[in-house]
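Hi L., both proteins are below.
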Amino acid sequence: MDIEVDPVVAELGTPLLGTEARVVERDQRVQTQVIVDRPIDVQCQFVGVQRIAGATAEAMVDDAGQGPAQVRGQEPGTSLDRIVRIEVVHGQGRPGGAAEDHVGNARPGPLRIGDYRNGSLLDSVETPAQTTHWEELLNEIDIQTNMKLYLVLGDQLSHCLSSLKEVKIGADLIWMCELCSEATRVKHHKKKIAFIFSAMRHFAAELKEVGHSVHYTYYTDSDNGGSFTGEVARALQAYSIEHILVTAPSEYAVLHEVESWQEKFDIKVEVRPDVRFLCTIKAFRQWAGGRKQLRMEYFYRKMRRTHDILMEEDEPVGGRWNFDSENRKPPKKGLDVPPTYMSDPDAITTEVIEFVDETFKDHFGDLRPFHFAVTAAQARDALSQFIEQRLANFGDYQDAMLQDEPWMYHSHLSLYINCGLLTPLECIEAAETAYWEGQAPLNAVEGFIRQLLGWREYVRGLYWLKMPEYAQLNYFDAKRELPEFFWTAKTDINCLRQCVRETKVNAYAHHIQRLMVIGNFALIAGLHPEHVNEWFWIVYADAYQWVELPNVSGMILFADGGLLASKPYAASGAYINKMSNYCKDCRYAVTKRNGPDACPFNYLYWDFLMRHQDLLQDNPRMAMIYRTLDKMSPERVKATKEDSQRFLASLNKDSESSGGNS
């Protein structure tokens, strides 16, 4: 760029970063002006002029040299994460620099030119006395005006993200944001929002501690873009971004949004695979290709071999792949269940809790007490506590339920794994090590590892294989609205009351409570898959659509017609009575098949089988139960249908009178 400069300016050296610099005399004082054409902040101890978001703003330094006294074209105090600062090392005989020099000292002494990020000096060079060739000096330090933008989502709180491996400290920008679009896509449990926002803020602090340039948008920021697209637009306006990188989002809708940015913003967008998962989407597609049936057991065996987990050469440890038959013991008296991991909220978490309490008053769930881990270090402590205190009994009692014991021997780690504070592999390796060191039996360790290496990877693969159509499946054409007690826990059915109440308090219920109590009821009562999916997504702290949808539509509701599960997981009250102590405190009698005092699970179960006999009777795993149904007396068939109609009609009245979701 050709520019005309004063002789004094020529001595200083031009252009500065391909722009214009000049020294002018005003009121017997020397002022230096720097005109830049990139969104960086070039600050002199005289006068700096910066362009922010396309608008030029002039920053005047006050008489004491204490920083900008006014900024025209931008709000006072505006600053960027990246600063190129030109400092007078001495002038007017004052070491440390002067804001202004008298005309008689128009040629200042040594200058220091530095690259600053988030208030820290990353690199600098100092001129010899009376030498002020800025352009040459700027080339000596690593100052980059075109940077890469790394977007980190709220369930990607892992330092091992593929998209973060190449981040240059000080040169690239990491962007994190709390968004209305995500917090209210469904009305998430208060405790879930507090957990995710606190974990995000702690993760951002960790990134800053190691020197990364991090922009963090708070929910209450006046310029919050409101969505990922809005935030990216804001970043591109404020910074000179040449490339956007993001680890593949876990949910279909978010990936679709990310994939629109390249065309929308005319910028390179790179989506990196999520290496925290142990099976790539491509590998799952290859495994699924050509198979008539997709069964988790065979996928799990492949994963065991691929990752050499609990293997002796090419054979499973113990001679069996699956010890599930040994993991179905009912609870016995005298079980000493250890408490779950608990941490005291720090200042960050306390602030988040107060914010959530004020902002999301109409959301479901109890916010306090709050004891979740919110950092990777705390989550690793929770993992260690599980391995040491509960893993040994996890296998035997993983299906057991006890009143007022919501945590049992489960790990309670899924919320940490699903948001990135823990990786599945470190949990798997910790459990496997416990087996080899004799701390836990094989049935417990294999059962825990199967949940992560088998089931978790399987449902994720199925989600990406079948979306977006999978979200619309409704094999049984179920249409009933969600009963009001799903929100209030006000029901005489004690097992449901216990599980919903504990969900409301803890944002957690273990897998048998979800599958065989809440889910079982939703299946046999004919609740609409869309409503059930939304409820599960709302209420559990570990719920993201990729993991919730296949579990609910596939495993719980059989809405996919058997793509995921080989049969519906429907059961009468007898199963709940066997695996829990809920029934003894219930107003209904689990031993009664029919009548107003009979357990509703008993007649709803058989009514479900009758309603859908045409869809299920040819299923090989249902053959025995349909032979039993064929032998049922006409009187009992009639009573079962009448009891079911009466009960379901009462559900409809309760929902209508309450107005539905609260």
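That was the first. Here is the second:
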Amino acid sequence: MNKELLFKNALIVNVFIGAFLLFMIQPLIGKIFTPIFGGGSQIWILCLFFFQFVLLCGYSFAYLLSKLPKKLQIIVYSISIISSLFIFKFPAIEQIEVNSTNPISSILMILLANFALPLMLVSSVSTTIQNWYKISTNKEPYFLYAISNIGSLLALLSFPFIIEPNLTVSITSDMWLLGYWALGVCIVSTSLLFFFNKQSNCNTQSNNEGTQANNREFSVKNLLLWVALSCLGTSILLAFTSHLTHDIAPIPLLWVFPLGLYLFTFVSVFGKNKVYNRKLYIFGSFLLIMLLFISKNPSLKAYFTNFSEILTTLILMLFLCMVCHGELYELRPNSKKLPIFYLSISFGGALGGFLISIASPILFNNYLEHALILTAIFSYLLFLVFKHKLILFYDQKVDLGFRYFVLLVISVYAIKVGACEIGKLNSKSKIVETRNFYGAAKLHLNAQNRNTLYNGRILHGYQLIDEKTKELLPTPTAYYGSLSAFGIVYDLFKNYHNKSIKMGIIGLGTGTQAIYGKKGDIIDFFEIDPKIIKIANEHFSFIKNSKAKVNFILGDGRLNLAKQRKESYDLLVVDAFSSDAIPVHLLTKEALELYMRKIKKDGLLIIHISNKYVDLKKLLESLSIDLGLNQVAIRVKPTSLDPYSYSNHYAFISKSDFLKKEIKKQKIEEKYNHIKLSYPPKKAKVDIWTDNFSNIFTLLK
């Protein structure tokens, strides 16, 4: 192998390893942090902003490095990489301090303190290596950018399908550290090859670059377009991810797929074989957006399943990102301006991340950014159609008519959105929307004589309103109705103990459970989201009408529960699922051990496991078998005897088998024909979750 080929292969290896490590650690950090801060997709969105920020820092470092003489570049970069190898280590999960009242600054400070330096250096690898290739060969290095994105994509896809199902967090962290050391060795070795490699004459250009250089000269206009297109692409990624996991289907696995598609567009566009077809992706985007609008029509909604909506949304995101990144590639400069090009892209990415993950929750009471991004990209697509005189049909008159039809669709959509907002203000059913870092909540007040709370598309509870007096009624509803699994077992538990009880509840919602409290009872609500406490007190009366003493403990439920005395509670209820998302840290072996320490000897743990996408019953059965606990799962179907309850599913876990005996004694199955009881099998069906390991694949329905 000649020296030039060896050098080129070394560069490819460096770029690939660096990109793989960068996108392997992203879901790993998300897996560590999302459960601690409530388990919702907003934590993943904020982590993506952090990654965009360190990418900007890495590209800035690479840009400054490119201004140095060749020998100095080698020395500075090698020393930086080697030094970080001895400094960096993964923080222990139990040592992470959480500030639930200011989660944005808390998460960002933890990420900056622990991961900023190594991730900045890893993110600088691609640009630095491409710059070295350009200096040595004076050829365009964009194929290395495609290889970088291939490494990123493979890392991202391998995490949920290979790494997470088979490896613990600690083993994965050790693997990453090993890979980081390997990268350090490769960087130093490549630095030596670069040092001894003869520098190309920078006054000459390769034929490939020379034929196009004049069309891609650097200008301020192009720089602003690089930033704008990168910002738009990142905004599409984050807004669509948030929309998917909050409004359509809150499945944790969906967090990975949009990022994978986003990276795929970079791989496709910057690869050697040009795949960006402007007409295909622009007109395809128009059709997909119109299809998405049609799916929102209430009269046609029955024809669109969750799966079809997810698929349409993901394909649309792919097309829109292809347009953004395809146009970005068309505007790329010649290789002399490579560092500033990548710096502009990273700045645009960080700007888009800031707008969606930090600015939007502050500025909007709902997820308005999704509609704004769609409007912006729709307008840009139309601009491209007229700028490049794209023709969809062979008849130009027909094609012109199509363009005006697209304009009409945009206008109708804008009018419809405006009319909906005005309708909300004038509607008898007043809609109140509120949002903070933990997500958006929507309240339908006095809708069909009930106040209803939604998180995304998931109903989190409602309260009946007296038709005549317009007062809120103290009737338990939704998942906590009198004939729900909770209602039936609560009465059974109360009759069995025949005394005042203390109940701990992780997750507040509307506070419906408080209505079951009697005089002398104490109820502690553990709630991470301050806006939910405000909503429960201002728009619902379950807490006000409760005869029990009600306390609110703000912050993560598991962390605050750990601070309570041993055997504090008779009943402990876990219902902290935000829009069906799974807070993994509340369902691990360590979590169940904590719950058992906090309930009394004859106490009862109640976990709400109703979920469209994940079968939590199998997990809790396996955990109960592993810990030697008694469990009964009760699934309840709607019944005319309790018209205010929904289908619900609960797991009841205890240290002794008193509940099983009471169910048999009271003949519960005969008394209630709308319930179904199930007990754990002799052997566990799935692997148990721990703070160090979880695999959601085995639980998907």
